[in-house]
Protein backbone atom coordinates (compact mmCIF):
# COMPACT_ATOMS: atom_id res chain seq x y z
CA UNK A 1 0.00 0.00 0.00
CA UNK A 2 1.28 3.46 -0.93
CA UNK A 3 1.18 6.18 1.72
CA UNK A 4 -1.18 9.11 1.15
CA UNK A 5 1.81 11.45 1.42
CA UNK A 6 3.19 9.94 -1.76
CA UNK A 7 0.04 10.46 -3.85
CA UNK A 8 1.23 13.98 -4.71
CA UNK A 9 4.44 12.49 -6.02
CA UNK A 10 2.43 10.05 -8.15
CA UNK A 11 0.58 12.98 -9.70
CA UNK A 12 3.73 15.09 -9.95
CA UNK A 13 7.00 13.09 -10.16
CA UNK A 14 9.01 16.25 -9.47
CA UNK A 15 7.26 16.84 -6.15
CA UNK A 16 9.25 16.55 -2.92
CA UNK A 17 8.84 13.35 -0.89
CA UNK A 18 9.55 15.03 2.44
CA UNK A 19 13.23 14.17 2.43
CA UNK A 20 13.69 17.09 4.78
CA UNK A 21 11.56 15.34 7.40
CA UNK A 22 13.71 12.23 7.15
CA UNK A 23 17.09 13.94 7.32
CA UNK A 24 16.55 17.04 9.43
CA UNK A 25 17.16 16.61 13.16
CA UNK A 26 17.99 19.65 15.27
CA UNK A 27 18.37 18.92 18.99
CA UNK A 28 18.48 22.65 19.80
CA UNK A 29 14.84 23.07 18.76
CA UNK A 30 12.36 22.75 21.61
CA UNK A 31 10.49 19.48 21.86
CA UNK A 32 7.19 19.38 20.00
CA UNK A 33 6.07 16.11 21.57
CA UNK A 34 2.46 16.07 22.59
CA UNK A 35 2.33 15.36 26.29
CA UNK A 36 0.53 12.23 27.39
CA UNK A 37 -2.76 12.97 29.10
CA UNK A 38 -2.41 9.88 31.27
CA UNK A 39 0.60 7.83 32.21
CA UNK A 40 0.89 4.26 33.41
CA UNK A 41 3.48 3.32 36.03
CA UNK A 42 4.37 -0.34 36.44
CA UNK A 43 6.57 -1.77 39.14
CA UNK A 44 8.44 -5.06 39.00
CA UNK A 45 10.25 -5.91 42.21
CA UNK A 46 12.12 -9.16 42.57
CA UNK A 47 14.92 -11.16 44.08
CA UNK A 48 15.95 -14.78 43.67
CA UNK A 49 13.00 -15.97 45.73
CA UNK A 50 10.11 -13.53 45.28
CA UNK A 51 8.66 -11.46 42.48
CA UNK A 52 6.01 -8.73 42.51
CA UNK A 53 4.24 -7.18 39.50
CA UNK A 54 2.19 -4.13 40.36
CA UNK A 55 0.57 -1.19 38.60
CA UNK A 56 1.06 1.97 40.66
CA UNK A 57 -1.63 4.60 41.03
CA UNK A 58 0.82 7.49 40.76
CA UNK A 59 4.50 8.39 40.63
CA UNK A 60 4.68 8.99 44.36
CA UNK A 61 4.07 5.30 45.10
CA UNK A 62 7.41 4.47 43.49
CA UNK A 63 9.36 6.55 46.01
CA UNK A 64 9.44 3.76 48.58
CA UNK A 65 11.41 1.52 46.23
CA UNK A 66 14.58 3.61 46.12
CA UNK A 67 16.37 1.82 48.95
CA UNK A 68 15.22 -1.79 49.09
CA UNK A 69 16.97 -5.13 49.16
CA UNK A 70 15.13 -6.24 46.03
CA UNK A 71 15.76 -5.19 42.44
CA UNK A 72 13.18 -2.61 41.34
CA UNK A 73 12.17 -1.93 37.76
CA UNK A 74 9.89 1.07 37.31
CA UNK A 75 8.49 1.37 33.80
CA UNK A 76 6.64 4.56 32.86
CA UNK A 77 4.41 4.49 29.78
CA UNK A 78 3.73 8.01 28.54
CA UNK A 79 5.93 11.09 28.82
CA UNK A 80 4.58 13.90 30.98
CA UNK A 81 6.95 16.66 32.04
CA UNK A 82 5.67 17.13 35.60
CA UNK A 83 5.70 13.41 36.35
CA UNK A 84 9.17 12.91 34.84
CA UNK A 85 10.51 15.77 36.92
CA UNK A 86 8.90 14.32 40.07
CA UNK A 87 10.48 10.88 39.82
CA UNK A 88 13.77 12.34 38.60
CA UNK A 89 13.98 14.65 41.58
CA UNK A 90 13.38 11.79 44.02
CA UNK A 91 15.80 9.33 42.41
CA UNK A 92 18.54 11.94 41.89
CA UNK A 93 18.38 12.08 38.10
CA UNK A 94 20.27 15.12 36.79
CA UNK A 95 18.31 17.89 34.97
CA UNK A 96 20.39 17.30 31.82
CA UNK A 97 19.15 13.71 31.74
CA UNK A 98 15.60 14.94 32.33
CA UNK A 99 16.00 17.23 29.33
CA UNK A 100 17.12 14.28 27.19
CA UNK A 101 14.15 12.21 28.37
CA UNK A 102 11.72 14.98 27.44
CA UNK A 103 13.35 15.74 24.07
CA UNK A 104 12.41 14.09 20.77
CA UNK A 105 14.53 12.85 17.87
CA UNK A 106 17.51 12.40 20.16
CA UNK A 107 20.58 10.60 18.89
CA UNK A 108 21.19 7.34 20.83
CA UNK A 109 23.77 7.96 23.52
CA UNK A 110 24.85 7.10 27.06
CA UNK A 111 25.76 9.38 30.00
CA UNK A 112 27.03 8.97 33.57
CA UNK A 113 25.88 11.67 35.98
CA UNK A 114 25.36 11.63 39.74
CA UNK A 115 26.33 7.98 40.02
CA UNK A 116 23.61 6.92 37.55
CA UNK A 117 24.03 5.37 34.11
CA UNK A 118 21.64 6.74 31.50
CA UNK A 119 21.03 5.77 27.91
CA UNK A 120 18.53 6.86 25.27
CA UNK A 121 17.84 4.96 22.05
CA UNK A 122 15.06 4.17 19.63
CA UNK A 123 12.79 1.18 19.71
CA UNK A 124 11.79 0.25 16.15
CA UNK A 125 8.50 -1.13 14.86
CA UNK A 126 7.41 -2.08 11.36
CA UNK A 127 4.02 -0.79 10.23
CA UNK A 128 2.60 -3.46 7.93
CA UNK A 129 -0.18 -1.19 6.71
CA UNK A 130 2.07 1.64 5.51
CA UNK A 131 5.20 -0.50 4.97
CA UNK A 132 7.16 1.95 7.09
CA UNK A 133 9.56 1.92 10.03
CA UNK A 134 8.25 3.68 13.14
CA UNK A 135 10.38 4.76 16.06
CA UNK A 136 9.74 5.19 19.76
CA UNK A 137 12.30 6.88 21.98
CA UNK A 138 13.23 4.81 25.05
CA UNK A 139 15.13 6.27 28.00
CA UNK A 140 16.65 3.95 30.61
CA UNK A 141 18.26 4.95 33.91
CA UNK A 142 20.35 2.48 35.90
CA UNK A 143 20.99 3.08 39.57
CA UNK A 144 21.98 0.96 42.53
CA UNK A 145 19.40 -1.84 42.68
CA UNK A 146 16.90 -0.04 40.46
CA UNK A 147 16.16 0.60 36.79
CA UNK A 148 13.74 3.24 35.49
CA UNK A 149 12.55 3.10 31.88
CA UNK A 150 10.53 5.77 30.07
CA UNK A 151 8.44 4.84 27.02
CA UNK A 152 6.47 7.17 24.76
CA UNK A 153 3.86 4.69 23.55
CA UNK A 154 1.95 2.47 25.94
CA UNK A 155 0.23 0.48 23.18
CA UNK A 156 3.41 -1.27 21.98
CA UNK A 157 6.13 -2.87 24.03
CA UNK A 158 8.94 -5.36 23.31
CA UNK A 159 9.60 -5.98 27.00
CA UNK A 160 6.79 -8.50 27.51
CA UNK A 161 9.14 -11.43 26.94
CA UNK A 162 11.42 -10.00 29.64
CA UNK A 163 8.55 -9.83 32.08
CA UNK A 164 7.81 -13.49 31.43
CA UNK A 165 11.45 -14.35 32.16
CA UNK A 166 11.30 -12.47 35.44
CA UNK A 167 8.31 -14.56 36.49
CA UNK A 168 10.41 -17.73 36.17
CA UNK A 169 12.11 -18.64 39.48
CA UNK A 170 15.90 -19.03 39.33
CA UNK A 171 16.05 -17.39 35.90
CA UNK A 172 19.21 -15.45 35.02
CA UNK A 173 17.42 -12.16 35.51
CA UNK A 174 16.31 -13.16 39.00
CA UNK A 175 19.79 -14.40 39.94
CA UNK A 176 21.58 -11.20 38.94
CA UNK A 177 21.43 -7.54 39.83
CA UNK A 178 20.03 -4.39 38.29
CA UNK A 179 22.88 -4.21 35.77
CA UNK A 180 21.74 -7.51 34.26
CA UNK A 181 18.19 -6.12 34.01
CA UNK A 182 19.65 -3.05 32.30
CA UNK A 183 21.47 -5.32 29.85
CA UNK A 184 18.34 -7.36 29.18
CA UNK A 185 16.33 -4.25 28.32
CA UNK A 186 18.97 -3.18 25.80
CA UNK A 187 19.21 -6.69 24.41
CA UNK A 188 15.43 -6.85 23.88
CA UNK A 189 15.51 -3.59 21.90
CA UNK A 190 18.48 -4.69 19.77
CA UNK A 191 16.95 -8.11 19.08
CA UNK A 192 13.77 -6.41 17.89
CA UNK A 193 15.82 -4.54 15.29
CA UNK A 194 16.30 -7.87 13.50
CA UNK A 195 12.54 -8.41 13.31
CA UNK A 196 12.14 -5.01 11.64
CA UNK A 197 15.01 -5.71 9.24
CA UNK A 198 13.50 -9.08 8.29
CA UNK A 199 10.29 -7.28 7.32
CA UNK A 200 12.28 -4.79 5.25
CA UNK A 201 14.17 -7.63 3.58
CA UNK A 202 10.84 -9.17 2.53
CA UNK A 203 9.75 -5.84 1.04
CA UNK A 204 13.05 -5.55 -0.84
CA UNK A 205 12.55 -9.01 -2.34
CA UNK A 206 8.97 -8.17 -3.34
CA UNK A 207 10.13 -4.92 -4.88
CA UNK A 208 12.86 -6.69 -6.86
CA UNK A 209 10.29 -9.10 -8.34
CA UNK A 210 7.99 -6.17 -9.07
CA UNK A 211 10.76 -4.38 -10.98
CA UNK A 212 11.54 -7.45 -13.07
CA UNK A 213 7.89 -8.19 -13.90
CA UNK A 214 6.38 -4.76 -14.45
CA UNK A 215 8.32 -1.64 -13.55
CA UNK A 216 6.38 1.62 -13.73
CA UNK A 217 6.09 4.97 -11.95
CA UNK A 218 4.54 3.33 -8.89
CA UNK A 219 7.57 1.07 -8.63
CA UNK A 220 9.81 4.13 -8.56
CA UNK A 221 7.69 5.56 -5.74
CA UNK A 222 8.04 2.33 -3.76
CA UNK A 223 11.82 2.40 -4.26
CA UNK A 224 11.96 5.97 -2.99
CA UNK A 225 9.75 5.15 0.01
CA UNK A 226 11.81 2.12 0.96
CA UNK A 227 15.04 4.06 0.52
CA UNK A 228 13.88 6.61 3.08
CA UNK A 229 12.93 3.84 5.51
CA UNK A 230 16.50 2.55 5.15
CA UNK A 231 17.82 5.99 6.04
CA UNK A 232 15.69 6.01 9.18
CA UNK A 233 16.80 2.47 10.04
CA UNK A 234 20.48 3.29 9.63
CA UNK A 235 20.17 6.50 11.61
CA UNK A 236 18.55 4.61 14.51
CA UNK A 237 20.84 1.57 14.56
CA UNK A 238 24.25 3.09 13.81
CA UNK A 239 24.72 5.16 17.00
CA UNK A 240 23.65 2.26 19.24
CA UNK A 241 27.01 0.64 18.51
CA UNK A 242 28.75 3.62 20.11
CA UNK A 243 26.25 3.51 22.97
CA UNK A 244 27.05 -0.10 23.89
CA UNK A 245 30.76 0.48 23.35
CA UNK A 246 30.57 3.48 25.69
CA UNK A 247 29.02 1.31 28.41
CA UNK A 248 31.77 -1.29 28.01
CA UNK A 249 34.50 1.33 28.26
CA UNK A 250 32.92 3.27 31.10
CA UNK A 251 34.09 0.91 33.86
CA UNK A 252 31.08 2.07 35.84
CA UNK A 253 30.71 0.61 39.33
CA UNK A 254 27.08 -0.19 38.58
CA UNK A 255 28.16 -2.73 35.92
CA UNK A 256 29.56 -5.84 37.55
CA UNK A 257 32.49 -7.63 35.94
CA UNK A 258 30.45 -10.79 35.33
CA UNK A 259 27.85 -8.77 33.39
CA UNK A 260 30.33 -7.18 30.97
CA UNK A 261 30.41 -10.30 28.79
CA UNK A 262 26.68 -9.93 28.19
CA UNK A 263 27.13 -6.34 27.03
CA UNK A 264 29.85 -7.62 24.66
CA UNK A 265 27.28 -10.00 23.23
CA UNK A 266 24.87 -7.10 22.63
CA UNK A 267 27.76 -5.20 21.03
CA UNK A 268 28.32 -8.09 18.61
CA UNK A 269 24.60 -8.12 17.78
CA UNK A 270 24.44 -4.40 17.08
CA UNK A 271 27.53 -4.59 14.85
CA UNK A 272 25.85 -7.33 12.84
CA UNK A 273 22.63 -5.31 12.67
CA UNK A 274 24.58 -2.28 11.48
CA UNK A 275 26.27 -4.40 8.78
CA UNK A 276 22.87 -5.68 7.65
CA UNK A 277 21.58 -2.11 7.45
CA UNK A 278 24.57 -1.24 5.24
CA UNK A 279 23.83 -4.25 3.04
CA UNK A 280 20.19 -3.22 2.71
CA UNK A 281 21.26 0.28 1.69
CA UNK A 282 23.50 -1.21 -1.01
CA UNK A 283 20.62 -3.40 -2.14
CA UNK A 284 18.43 -0.32 -2.53
CA UNK A 285 21.08 1.29 -4.71
CA UNK A 286 21.17 -1.90 -6.79
CA UNK A 287 17.38 -1.84 -7.06
CA UNK A 288 17.53 1.71 -8.38
CA UNK A 289 20.11 0.62 -10.96
CA UNK A 290 17.95 -2.40 -11.82
CA UNK A 291 14.93 -0.16 -12.30
CA UNK A 292 16.84 2.19 -14.60
CA UNK A 293 18.23 -0.75 -16.58
CA UNK A 294 14.74 -2.23 -16.92
CA UNK A 295 13.30 1.10 -18.07
CA UNK A 296 16.12 1.55 -20.59
CA UNK A 297 15.59 -2.02 -21.82
CA UNK A 298 11.89 -1.38 -22.36
CA UNK A 299 12.70 1.84 -24.19
CA UNK A 300 15.22 0.01 -26.38
CA UNK A 301 12.62 -2.65 -27.20
CA UNK A 302 10.15 0.03 -28.26
CA UNK A 303 12.77 1.80 -30.38
CA UNK A 304 13.79 -1.49 -31.99
CA UNK A 305 10.17 -2.29 -32.85
CA UNK A 306 9.67 1.17 -34.34
CA UNK A 307 12.88 0.80 -36.36
CA UNK A 308 11.76 -2.58 -37.73
CA UNK A 309 8.34 -1.20 -38.69
CA UNK A 310 10.02 1.72 -40.41
CA UNK A 311 12.31 -0.64 -42.35
CA UNK A 312 9.39 -2.82 -43.41
CA UNK A 313 7.43 0.17 -44.69
CA UNK A 314 10.41 1.66 -46.53
CA UNK A 315 10.15 -0.56 -49.69
CA UNK A 316 6.44 0.23 -50.12
CA UNK A 317 7.18 3.93 -49.63
CA UNK A 318 9.97 3.88 -52.24
CA UNK A 319 7.94 1.93 -54.82
CA UNK A 320 4.88 4.12 -54.30
CA UNK A 321 6.99 7.25 -54.60
CA UNK A 322 8.62 6.09 -57.85
CA UNK A 323 5.37 5.25 -59.56
CA UNK A 324 3.77 8.40 -58.20
CA UNK A 325 6.15 10.69 -60.10
CA UNK A 326 4.62 13.09 -62.63
CA UNK A 327 6.70 12.02 -65.66
CA UNK A 328 5.15 11.21 -68.99
CA UNK A 329 7.46 8.21 -69.58
CA UNK A 330 7.55 5.74 -66.68
CA UNK A 331 8.41 2.04 -67.19
CA UNK A 332 5.35 -0.23 -67.05
CA UNK A 333 3.08 2.82 -66.73
CA UNK A 334 0.58 1.38 -69.25
CA UNK A 335 1.27 -2.30 -68.47
CA UNK A 336 -1.87 -4.11 -67.32
CA UNK A 337 0.22 -6.05 -64.78
CA UNK A 338 2.07 -2.99 -63.48
CA UNK A 339 -0.13 -2.36 -60.47
CA UNK A 340 -0.12 -6.05 -59.45
CA UNK A 341 3.67 -6.27 -59.79
CA UNK A 342 4.22 -3.15 -57.67
CA UNK A 343 1.87 -4.42 -54.94
CA UNK A 344 3.56 -7.82 -55.03
CA UNK A 345 6.95 -6.15 -54.57
CA UNK A 346 5.56 -4.12 -51.67
CA UNK A 347 4.53 -7.37 -49.95
CA UNK A 348 7.38 -9.66 -50.96
CA UNK A 349 10.28 -7.34 -50.00
CA UNK A 350 9.04 -6.82 -46.35
CA UNK A 351 8.50 -10.58 -46.01
CA UNK A 352 12.05 -11.20 -47.22
CA UNK A 353 13.31 -8.54 -44.81
CA UNK A 354 11.52 -10.22 -41.87
CA UNK A 355 13.09 -13.56 -42.84
CA UNK A 356 16.49 -11.91 -43.06
CA UNK A 357 16.11 -10.24 -39.65
CA UNK A 358 15.09 -13.57 -38.13
CA UNK A 359 18.14 -15.35 -39.50
CA UNK A 360 20.38 -12.63 -38.10
CA UNK A 361 18.47 -12.89 -34.75
CA UNK A 362 17.79 -9.19 -34.65
CA UNK A 363 14.45 -9.88 -32.99
Q: What does it look like?
A:
Strand 1 (40-46) and strand 2 (51-56) form a beta hairpin. Mean pLDDT is 83; it is low at 1-18. The chain is rod-shaped and about 120 Å long. With 363 residues, it is of the alpha+beta class. The protein has a seven-stranded mixed sheet with strand order 2-1-3-7-6-5-4, sandwiched between helices. The protein is 55% helix and 15% strand. The protein contains ten helices and seven strands. It folds into two domains: 4-294, Beta Polymerase, domain 2; 303-359, Methane Monooxygenase Hydroxylase, Chain G, domain 1.
Termini separation: 37 Å
Here the CATH topology of the largest domain equals Beta Polymerase, domain 2
CATH C-level class of the largest domain: Alpha Beta
Based on DSSP secondary structure assignment, what is the total number of beta strands? 7
Instruction: Calculate the mean pLDDT score and round it.
Output: 83
Question: Helical proportion?
Answer: 55-70%
Radius of gyration: 34 Å
Q: Largest beta sheet: what is the strand line-up?
A: 2-1-3-7-6-5-4
Which oligomeric form is depicted? single chain
Biggest sheet character: 7 strands, mixed
CATH architecture of the largest domain: 2-Layer Sandwich
Query: What structural class is derived from the secondary structure elements?
Result: alpha+beta
User: Which consecutive residue ranges, at least 5 long each, have pLDDT under 50?
Assistant: 1-18
Strand composition percent: 15-25%
Summed up, the helix count is 10
CATH superfamily of the largest domain: CorA soluble domain-like
Structural domain count: 2
Q: Which shape, going by the Cα principal axes?
A: rod-shaped
Strand-and-helix sequence, N→C? HHEEEHHEEEEHHHHHH
Amino acid sequence: MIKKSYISYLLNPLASLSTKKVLQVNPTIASNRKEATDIAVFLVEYNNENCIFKKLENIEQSYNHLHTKEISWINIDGIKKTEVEKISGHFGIHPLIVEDILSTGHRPKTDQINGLLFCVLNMLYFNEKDCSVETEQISIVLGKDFVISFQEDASRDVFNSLREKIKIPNSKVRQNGADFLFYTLLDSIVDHYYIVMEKLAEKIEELEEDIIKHADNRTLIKINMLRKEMILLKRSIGPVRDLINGILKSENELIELKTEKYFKDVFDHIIQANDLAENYRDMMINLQDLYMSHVNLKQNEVMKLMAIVTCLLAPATVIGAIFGMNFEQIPMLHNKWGFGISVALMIFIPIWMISFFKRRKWF
